[in-house]
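Researcher: Please translate sequence to structure tokens.
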Amino acid sequence: MGSPSEGTESLARRTRRLLRERGLAPLKSKGQHFLVDQHCAAQIADFAAPDPSLPVLEIGAGLGALTLELAARAPHVVAVELDRGLLAALRSEGLPPTVTAVEGDALELDLEALLASHPGRWRATGNLPYYAATAILQRLLLLGSRLERIVATVQSEVAERLRARPGDPQYGSLSVWTALHAAEVAALLEVPRGAFYPQPKVDSQVVCLTPREGVPCRPEAQALLLAVVRAAFGQRRKMLRNALAELLGRTPSAQERLAAAMAQAGIAPQARGEAASPEQFVVLAEALASSEVELTGSDG
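Model: Translation complete:
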């Protein structure tokens, strides 16, 4: 099957026709904004499947704008869609034999099981719903080296947070978490609102994340690391030591251990969370874990 961009019916017309024929309407509650710019869909597919060597996992197939472009480039596509009506509409058009359409929620499905059809590495992509983009990306990154790359369309604000570094206004817990699980985050393409139907109120970006082989943190410190990062950015105006005091407790012993751990991580006593690098958060969490500090705050 050739690239859908070679067809005669425009993507925008096809989208509206399928919705009309099936009695469907975009659901705001599910963050449904359908990609209707054929050139944009082809560009994203080129990024997600630059060669036919690896299969692709697509999150949020919708009406297949990206799915069909991927099918023209990848040896196999597993397309996940939560909305049963959209999935029926997509299947009604006739999918290529290399596409497996799966009904389900990407936040609940066993993603490892979906990848079991091909034992090697995969690529992942999707026009992610705004309300769930962060959680979906985190789940994909946890697949680690099973994914060669993740090419995702997200709202511009999320894209900026994914790439933010210490000192940037957008730097926060998502930035730290992403830096620890992705070796690289690159901006690929700006997608204007007019590329979608209905038009969202914000612009979007396509980003590429390269998952790390493993998390640079000892297993026994990973839960503590997550709690520390959340606490650090939960109240951004507080100094880090005060934000963590609510998590670790204010006893003299806990405060001594916290001060020693911050010093070991090279974090100044007066520093706020946004001043600490992802690597410093790892050292901090591992030092706290080694000191056997106990969590007392609600984040723990």
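Researcher: Any highlights?
Model: The first strand starts at residue 34 and ends at 35.
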